[in-house]
Write a structure and sequence with these properties.
about 100 residues; alpha+beta; 2 helices; 7 strands; globular
Length: about 100
């Protein structure tokens, strides 16, 4: 199984991590010490809302209920229930840990 790259555009300098396709984007971020707020981890609350700048993610059979149409159109996604279909680049999560 091929790993995908998650690039973080909001860090200086930019950083990236490899994502195992069996783990969510959120799992990879947390495992690598990236401060991102999380709550439900099942796509309902929307707390982990993050901009997807490039690439494709996959929700599989999960539904991103915590994401409204305006957020989708603005390019946001929910890392808690998504995996990488391709290499991706993300922006700063909407809510970060203090």
């Amino acid at each position: 199984m091929q790993k995908k790259r998650i690039s973080l555009s909001f860090l200086d300098p930019d950083q990236w991590f490899l994502n195992d396709q069996r783990e969510t984007v959120l799992d990879t971020l947390v495992k690598n010490g990236i401060p991102i707020k999380q709550a439900c981890i099942n796509g309902v609350c929307g707390v982990c809302l993050t901009p997807l700048l490039s690439g494709e993610i996959d929700y599989a059979e999960r539904r991103p209920r915590g994401l409204n149409e305006k957020e989708k159109e603005s390019g946001y996604f929910l890392p808690c229930i998504s995996t990488c279909k391709t290499d991706i680049c993300i922006g700063k999560p909407k809510v970060t840990l203090r």
